[in-house]
Write a structure and sequence with these properties.
By secondary structure, the chain is an all-alpha fold. Helix content is 79%, strand content 0%. The chain contains nine helices and no strands. α3 packs parallel to α5 and α4 runs antiparallel to α5. The chain is globular.
């Protein structure tokens, strides 16, 4: 904790000295100048964020344990479980890049719906696979799950005014991480009752309301 706290302190000191006072987004010539906030499309985005936050936190909380249970024949199963989870998280880097690329080229409401949809079968497959098949499914999930963030960040920007954007981002991530934190308790109860594999199935089912919200957003808006 002290080591990572030091990294955070160093980053904070750098940002303190590097912060700019440039406020170009408030210029009358900026493409988003004068854009009003549209609360109606933000609601399904927030619902999707809550569902994805629940699934994300539930999966990552118990993935190291589930990976170690799947590789009990290795010399150090706990170490293997941790390393494989780190590999899944590292794959999220490519997901962030892909999400940003897709979000610049395709309709973002449709992308949000497709990403949530793609998460569900991957989580179900993670329930019923072991060994290297599980690792492959988990990496694919890591890429697709992290692709969600740049897409929804851009969507919030699409429907928010420059004046309120920071607050609306804060609400989105507060809901995603705050409500998502409850997934650790739910996933723990599921794991105690039916084993760690069942956690991924339940987290996939939790995405169904988010899928519905994404469908509503996709249907009600023209491509952006």
């Amino acid at each position: 904790f002290m080591l990572f706290g030091f990294f955070a302190l160093a980053a904070g000191m750098y940002l303190l000295t590097a912060t700019t006072t440039e406020r170009g987004h408030e210029s009358p010539d900026h493409p988003q100048a004068g854009r009003p906030t549209r609360l109606r499309p933000l609601i399904p985005i927030y619902i999707g964020g809550i569902c994805m936050g629940l699934a994300h936190r539930g999966v990552l909380s118990f993935m190291p344990l589930h990976m170690s249970n799947s590789f009990t024949d290795s010399v150090a199963p706990i170490l293997v479980g941790g390393l494989l989870t780190a590999l899944v998280l590292a794959s999220g880097m490519f997901g962030q890049i892909l999400g940003g690329y897709w979000g610049d080229r395709y309709a973002r409401p449709r992308l949000m719906w497709l990403i949530i949809l793609g998460n569900i079968p991957l989580l179900i497959l993670m329930t019923y696979t072991t060994g290297m098949a599980l690792v492959i499914m988990a990496i694919a999930w890591g890429v697709l799950s992290f692709a969600y963030q740049p897409v929804t960040n851009a969507l919030i920007s699409d429907f928010s005014s420059a004046r309120q954007r920071g607050t609306l981002f804060g609400i989105f991530h507060g809901l995603a991480f705050g409500v998502g934190a409850l997934a650790a308790t739910l996933a723990g109860a599921v794991g105690d009752a039916w084993g760690t594999a069942a956690i991924f199935l339940v987290m996939g089912l939790l995405l169904i309301p988010g899928l519905w919200a994404g469908w509503l957003l996709k249907r009600s808006l023209a491509p952006l």
